[in-house]
Structures are given as C-alpha cells and as structure tokens.
Amino acid sequence: MKTIKLTKPERQKLITDKLKEYPALRVSELSQDIGVSTETIRRDLDELESLGLISRTYGGAAPAITKEPSFKQREMVNVKQYEIIARATCHFINDGEVLAIGSSVTTLQVAVRLAAEKRDLTVFTDSYAIASALSSNPTFKVHVCPGLYNDDENCVFGPESINYFSNIYVNKAILGATGLNQIGVSNVDLEIGETYKAMARSASETIIVADSSKISKNAVSLFLPWNQISRLIIDKPPFDEELTVGLKHGKVDVTIATENSWSF
Predict the structure, then answer these.
(1) How far apart are CA 177 and CA 217, in angstroms?
(2) For site-directed labelling of 219, which of 69, 105, 130, 191 has its Cα 20 to 30 A away?
(3) Considering the entire predicted model, what is its pTM?
C-alpha cells in the first residue's frame, strides 16, 4: 500500500491541529504518526515556533504560550468590558458570603463593584489592590494572604499563599484568567496558577471572570479544568467551537454580560 506523502504546510497544519487536542507531543510520536523523519519534524517545530504557533519543549512541542503585559498595563485596556463583567458578577454574590478573590484586572473591577453594592462580605485575597478596593466598604472584613510579592501582577504567591487557602473555607472563589481553551483555564504564571488552584479547592463554587480576548489562548499554568468550574462570566458568547465543547462537557454555566443586561 502506497503511503501518501504530506507537503510541509499539510504536516504543519496536522501538528497544530494535534496540539489543540493534546497538551504536549513528542518528536518521536509525531515522526511515527506523520511518517517522516525526526529531523523533518524538528525543522517543522522550529518553524512553527518562529511563527508563534507553538512552543518548543524538551523533546517535543506544546501549544503556543500567551504572554501578558503587566497588571498596570492591562488596567488601561478593555476597561468597559471589565466593568460590564463586574456588574454581572455581583448578581451572583449574596450579602454576608465568604469569598476568595484572585488577583486580575477583571477581578479588581469586581471588587470595586462589590464594595459599592454589597454588605457584610468576608473576603480572602492575594491582591493588595483588591484589598484596597474592598476596604472602602466598612461592613466588609478583608484578609490578604501571606507570600512573596510579585510586582508585575500586584499580588503575593508561593507556598505560604497555597497553604493559607488550604486552611480556609469560602462560599465562592472568583478568579480571572489569561487563557480559555477546550481543556480549561490557564494563567501566565505557574506559581500564581497554583494559588488560584488552592483558592478554588477552598470554595463550594468557582466563578471565572474573563473578557473575550482570552478565548482560544493558552498560558503556561493550566490551573483548572472546566469540570471544576461552576460558572464563566464573559462579555461575548464563546465563538470557538472547541471551547464550547469543553464548556458543555464540564457542565459550566455561562453568563454573557452586556452593557445593559446579562444572559445565560
């Protein structure tokens, strides 16, 4: 039986398609699957990485990694979307609840809105900016976890932070994201992703708040799969077919926040 030889564009498309299904692939596996030499696969991977379509790993490849600007830079863009998402998020928070809120630009806007609309919340956070926003409400009790300070993300992280959230219980965790894909939710920083994971484990419900620019993006720390998330609040319907499948399989409630209302 004659083997069909793929052209370079066909090979490279097959590689990027496979990386949408799997978190990592080895050169040897790709060589066997595609039917070309390992040297050819390595050249393909190097070219795809130079185009920003994948990330090279030791012995193989992974999906392209999203890099984010600093917290201060992100505060200056998509401000309207953050505020719209924050208004919708408040609808799902009740007076008197205990919350964990992770550091992000979107969750900072949620904190501002909560301080204006809610009463008697107890909030645990890794973010000084969020703690400051919440402290404007005299009925709130605000706790900042211990840890090492990350100036780029304006939060604390590390083993102390993870241990802190391992020893508390909250009604809801509200977390931001760098990327949303078929598998779940990712963050640009591995250690901050571990803190988010600890926050989610401490909560009865986990709410992800993110603007639509995060759809189909991948960041280094995949901190939660969709089946561990209760709700996604976003400013536009997920237009990515694979993400939609992941949300359905994870049984995630999706709220679309618009300027004047929100829908389910």
Answers:
(1) 10
(2) 130
(3) 0.72
